[in-house]
From TrEMBL:
InterPro entries (UniProt xref): AAA+_ATPase, ABC_SmlMolc_Importer, ABC_transporter-like_ATP-bd, ABC_transporter-like_CS, Mo/tungstate-bd_C_term_dom, P-loop_NTPase, Sulph_transpt1, Transp-assoc_OB_typ2
Superkingdom per UniProt: Bacteria
Cellular component terms per the entry's GO annotation: ATP-binding cassette (ABC) transporter complex
Enzyme Commission number(s): 7.6.2.9
Residue span, ABC transporter domain: 3-233
Enzyme type, top EC level: translocase
Keyword Translocase (UniProt): yes
Pfam annotation, one family: ABC_tran
Protein name: ABC-type quaternary amine transporter
First and last residue of the signal peptide: none
GO molecular function: ABC-type quaternary ammonium compound transporting activity; ABC-type sulfate transporter activity; ATP binding; ATP hydrolysis activity
């Protein structure tokens, strides 16, 4: 189902929980609504489901407004974080619930439930009650139950929040494959950036009731539109005084710079060609991360995180080093600027290129 959300507003008393929220979701996409706690993600999901009435704005499914449609008329499946299975019903009865409500005949129900048991890998567990299942199995039942009435849109509210880390990872991959296979448009709420990056086709970043940015995980990581997004997605360094660093005096007046650790190169005394043209600092921490070293360097009072390849010489705390900043982000009210630096190989003199 193609979903269009236009200028949705929701107030709870004087509190503005959703502010002019707009986005489009193409059919079959898996979308992550990502943002800090209290940002308004669940409120947006509930408005899509018809469980919360917006103060203004519109929601279109297949190009038709559903703003006045009741939840049961919207063709939506729901999966919540706390399973919300019926405790007194077996797995079979839980999955069959929506079909029973629709008054489908017994044979149709049995066929559908059996197909879903197979799809979700729950065969053999159909006669168990929820308390006889693991957290991961319960969440699969919740998923199968939501799918049974063949919804056109699946809404998942923190579906993995109550599940331990290892099973959670497995379930994420499972869910992504399942949704791809079924081609059902799905929106899931999470405040876990890793989860969103791993499984979403597109991410909608929500903060303080507003859409901060919409894009693929890669687009958002590489081109964050605001300092908030840059800090929320991935690791980043905020450098407030970069104009005081050697070679960066031309960046006066641009405000804080944001730099990703992979764009900071640490050079030891032996590796540097012209130390006098580059910022200089002292290594304050080194952590072995399996695939690289995480190095923290104190430069002009700011601690900067950098990644250092394992094939390079090991660095020690207290060592004096130089750093090359390959890319920086600066944010204005309504504009994001990326600055790539190109270095003269023999002098290391930075030449700024704005892109
Ligand atoms: N029924 C309500 N009455 C009053 N305030 C509400 C109501 N529902 C939500 N809110 C407020 O709206 C804001 C957004 O809540 P919402 O649950 O949508 O955020 P969220 O991003 O989903 O957060 P979380 O990740 O913690 O679930 C919060 O400040 C919340 O307290």
């Amino acid at each position: 189902m193609h979903v269009i959300v236009r200028n949705l507003n929701k107030k709870f008393g004087s509190f503005h929980a959703a502010k002019d929220v707009s986005f489009d979701i193409k059919k079959g996409k898996l979308i992550g609504l990502l943002g800090p706690s209290g940002g308004g993600k669940t409120t947006i999901l509930r408005m899509l489901a018809g469980l919360e009435i917006p103060c203004s704005g519109d929601i279109l499914f297949h190009g038709k407004s559903v703003i006045n449609s009741a939840p049961q008329e919207r063709g939506i499946g729901f999966v919540f974080q706390n399973y919300a299975l019926f405790r007194h019903m077996t797995v079979f009865q839980n999955i069959a619930f929506g079909l029973t409500i629709q008054k489908k005949d017994k044979k149709t129900i049995a066929n559908k439930v059996n197909a879903l048991l197979e799809l979700t890998g729950l065969q053999g567990l159909e006669n168990r009650y929820p308390h006889q299942l693991s957290g991961g199995q319960r969440q699969r039942v919740a998923f199968a139950r939501a799918l049974a009435p063949e919804p056109q849109l699946l809404l998942l509210d923190e579906p993995f929040a109550a599940i331990d880390a290892k099973v959670r990872k497995e379930l994420r991959t499972w869910l992504k494959e399942m949704i791809q296979r079924l081609g059902i448009t799905s929106i899931f709420v999470t405040h876990d950036q890793e989860e969103a990056i791993e499984i979403a086709d597109e991410i909608i970043i929500i903060n303080q009731g507003r859409v901060e940015q919409v894009g693929t995980p890669m687009q958002i990581y590489k081109h964050p539109r605001s300092a908030f997004v840059a800090n929320f997605i991935g690791e980043s360094n905020t450098i407030r005084n970069i104009e005081e660093w050697k070679g960066f005096s031309k960046f006066t007046g641009l405000g804080a710079a944001m730099v990703r650790p992979e764009n900071v190169e640490v050079l030891t005394h032996e590796e540097v060609v012209r130390a006098d043209t580059l910022p200089r600092g002292v290594v304050s921490n080194v952590i072995f991360k399996g695939s690289n070293w995480q190095v923290e360097v104190n430069i002009e009072g700011t601690t900067v995180l950098a990644y250092r390849p394992l094939e390079k010489k090991e660095i020690s705390v207290g060592e004096e080093v130089n750093v090359v900043i390959h890319q920086l982000h600066f944010f204005d009210e309504d504009k994001a600027n990326i600055v790539k630096t190109s270095f003269n190989k023999s002098t290391h003199k930075p030449l700024a290129i704005y892109i």
